[in-house]
Amino acid sequence: MKVGDHSYRSIWPAVNGRDVEIIDQTKLPHCFEIVTLRNMEDAAKAIRDMLVRGAPLIGATAAYGFYLGLHEGASDGDMARIGKTLTGCRPTAVNLRWAVERMLTKLSPIAEDQRLAAAYLEAAAVCEEDVATNEALGNHGAALIRDIWERKDKKEPVNILTHCNAGWLATVDWGTALAPVYKAFYEGIPVHVWVDETRPRNQGAALTAWELAAQNIPHHLIVDNSGGHLMQHGRVDLCIVGTDRTTASGDVCNKIGTYLKALAAKDNDVPFYVSLPGSTIDWTIDDGLKQIPIEERDSDEVLRVHGITESGEPTGVYIAPRETPALNPAFDVTPASLVTGLITERGVCSASKEGLLELYPEQCK
Ligand code: MRU
Asked: What CATH number does domain 2-128 carry, 1.20.120.420, 3.40.250.10, 3.30.420.40, 3.30.1330.60?
């Protein structure tokens, strides 16, 4: 996607042919800073500290982190250690485990002295596939938006509510929830996006609003509590969110607060879609509530907000008494029964085992 006059992806190989570069998302929207990852620990730290975030990008960074780790040694033991370190960085997004398993499967049969070169190519392949996948799911999602536009008699823009950031910054390019929005917009369909700020880390305010502005897509930032009200007043045509892990039966784990939006959507007959690449489906589990580990993050994220001062200095301010006990679960699970449909690279299906297996028959056991 374009940033100014320049096209970027969220992660790419450095020109020196060895290192990897990312955009430091903790600095956005106020500062666009590129960071070089030189070893596995740099990649692990970037995932842990959320310089990169969003399930598909976490997976892509893990793939490149695996490659970087092989510079230190490429034995089976080294690979097991690298895999364990990377997998432990964040618990909820399944793409992390998916990417590590993919690297291990690809590299294990290869001679030790050829693993580094093969890993570089495989990490690049993970990224290329992510871009193609997101573009494909964007086309499927845009068809849903077009349908609503036609049913509105092409009179008013289609109002789409989204939560957190599932745009190009959460993936290698295009995004998941925002890919259909970009595709529809480029097709000439008038769209308008309600952007949930997404406390506590405000990925909606900091990242989604920044992304949409850069592409000139009409949007309004709203506080997390506004969505239900807007739906009650007919101001939301559909919700599209991303997911960090979707079970084989269609339960969806996404950024904390997603579940409340799905409840409000159900109560107001607003279609609630979840957009995802196949790599985000965890085929090993069925019950999202019981089986998905929910990351609990530092209470500081709840007690403090970060931004810039009038003069542009980065700052953090406490919004509660500093000693207030705070709980910070980072994700919640929306049961399949609240999801209208899953938008994937292979088409749109119901949020159910049957729906998913129709699109991914190779997963039938
Ligand atoms: O904690 P984050 O920023 O990594 O969480 C990301 C999300 O939950 C996004 O909503 C997204 O939908 C999943 S990644 C496309």
From this structure: 1.20.120.420
